[in-house]
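Translate sequence into structure tokens.
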Amino acid sequence: MRILSSPCRATQLSLFQSRPATPQWEQLPWEVRQQTIRLLARMLSEQSERELASRSTQEAGDE
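Result follows.
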């Protein structure tokens, strides 16, 4: 059996790295905030439309 004179040193990965800082809403650029608001409004609108369509489909099936 051969013995190494200089053993390799393995580095252990850190399992619990610190999380990156979350940007604060007020620190985001104005354009980003406006686009985010528009996208959220669109998502909410589309979701409510889907729920209304689902309800009307269920009601039509009940008759």
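Note: The chain has a mean pLDDT of 83.
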